[in-house]
Amino acid sequence: xxxxxxxxxxxxxxxxxxxxxxxxxxxxxxxxxxxxxxxxxxxxxxxxxxxxxxxxxxxxxxxxxxxxxxxxxxxxxxxxxxxxxxxxxxxxxxxxxx
Length: 98
Prior knowledge:
The protein has helices spanning 30-43, 56-64, 73-87, 90-97, and strands spanning 2-8, 14-21. By secondary structure, it is α+β, with helices and mostly antiparallel strands.
């Protein structure tokens, strides 16, 4: 499992950094994911400062660890954009560009 951090620096520039990559036991149960998440957050002294959403097991593990849970905007927007692209055809796009 890889943990990344996203933030805006003092110059208002978006930054992304990898904090840690650790091996998850072969059973990716909520309990095992929670243990890994808490380990990384504790090592980086980020308890109470972290919010992230991934797949369903990650969401449950984060909730079970008592961490703040905020849905990622990019993960929310992505299916909307994909759906719009799939419904847009060349015949509907070209007249709009004229």
